[in-house]
Amino acid sequence: MMKTPGFLGLSDTLPDLSQPRIVMFAAPHGSVYPGEDAGSCADAGRSIRAASQEDADLVGNWDFDLEGPLFNEGPVCCVDIGYLPTSPGDNAHNRTLIESRTREILAAAAVPVVIGGDDSVPIPFLAGFSEAGPIWIVQIDAHIDWRDERHGERFGYSSPMRRASEMGHVAGIVQVGMRGLGSAGVAELDAARSYGARIVTAREVHASGPGAAVASIPEGASIVITLDCDGLDPSVMPGVLARTPGGLSYMQVIELIEAVARRGRIAGFDLVELHTPSDISGLSALTASRILVNVIGRIVRQS
Question: Is 7-300 a CATH 1.20.120.450 domain?
Answer without folding.
Answer: no
